[in-house]
Amino acid sequence: MVIDLRVPGTSSTPGLVLRPWRDDDLAALLDAYRDPVLRRWTRVPVTDPAEGRQWLERTRQDWDAGRRYSFAVLEDDADEPRLAANVVLKKVSVDWPTPEVGYWTAAWARGRGVAPRAVTALSRWAFDEFPALERLDLLHQVDNVASCRVAQKSGYVFQEVLPARPPFPLDGHRHSLSAG
Question: Which residues contact 15 (CB under 8 A, 6 or more apart)?
Fold first, then answer.
């Protein structure tokens, strides 16, 4: 399935392209994961090419199985698109009534509105692609203030504080976005 979601640019921000991850994204993936801030908030480390290839293969397998849809987010620069982020729709299953939206942003792309625009595009796609969905959740640890802002800017409404559970040592926030 070829999916290429586009988010138009504005006078101050370039457009974004969201597409499934590809093998040739390995170098950009490794570069993004060199950032200690990104590594702090992610559960699956990518520290070398072998881990990067495994990450990309799992991403492809999850997509093919219809349980998790990860998109590489590229800034659509006139010269050459550059990897800015990852957005993912996870826990897509009849056994799990509310899928979750997750994301990370490359260090160089933070503060440019990439994450909220990409999360919004992914959310629209999810509701269009899976019409039976009633709600999406976005979860983050309470001390991840940037994720709280992304949730709010993407239209997700704070719902509750969730108790800490491994692998996360602190309580979390659950934000939700309803269909329609």
Answer: 6, 7, 8, 9, 75, 76
